[in-house]
Design brief:
tt1808, chain A, 11 strands, 2 domains, alpha+beta, six-stranded mixed β-sheet, three-stranded antiparallel β-sheet, 197 residues
Length: 197
């Protein structure tokens, strides 16, 4: 699909005349690699700028801590800025994701080259300057509906973390000093002093 995305005001949502196949979406993302691109379950394409400095720095801090824990825990692997083809037909990108070894063992060669057809066990979403109100909360609900066991939504401006689990009410932590992992990431602790700085 030829689309002059660079000339459009972002963020945008649009529905292509014909739904993009997984392969077409992967090519479209590769050709527009300076943008954050996702596909909704109904085929709509959502495009926004890649995260800015604030969000990027937070992602880096979380990746360091989660990767160190994952290396010592050895039950799974950490990914960043990766798209996942989900059961409902969407492709969502995770700022930070953790997958169990059980799920990783099912990766095909195609999964390793592009976007895997699997749902992460744990994701972190970060409210950024290009997000519209409620976008991230809605996205977390999509993650949960597709099989994520735990999701954290971090709002750096409000200094808040909301923990989401399937079938439970979200748990809001106002200005926490740390967040404890549960479920698949039990034993992980994210210290937030660097993130709030």
């Amino acid at each position: 699909m030829n689309l002059a995305v660079a000339e459009m005001r972002l963020p945008i949502r649009f529905r292509p005349p014909a739904p993009m196949t997984d392969d077409e979406l992967l090519v479209f993302c590769e050709r527009n690699d300076v943008l954050w691109i996702e596909r909704e379950a109904n085929g709509d394409i959502y495009i926004k700028p890649i995260p800015g400095c604030l969000v990027s720095g937070i992602i880096g801090d979380i990746l360091v801590d989660l990767s160190q824990w994952a290396d010592s825990d050895a039950r799974g692997e950490v990914f960043s800025n990766l798209g996942f083809f989900l059961a409902d037909g969407s492709m969502l990108g995770a700022s930070v994701a953790w997958l169990s070894n059980n799920k990783l063992s099912r990766f095909t060669e195609e999964d390793r080259k592009g976007f895997p057809s699997v749902c992460p066990d744990f994701v972190v979403e970060i409210v950024g300057p290009f997000d519209e109100p409620g976008d991230r909360q809605e996205k977390v609900q999509k993650w949960l509906a597709n099989g994520v066991a735990v999701a954290w939504l971090i709002d750096p401006l409000e200094k808040a973390v909301t923990i989401y689990r399937p079938g439970e009410q979200p748990e809001l932590l106002a200005q926490p000093t740390s967040v404890q992992g549960t479920g698949p990431i039990a034993g992980f602790e994210l210290v937030l002093s660097r993130i709030w700085a």
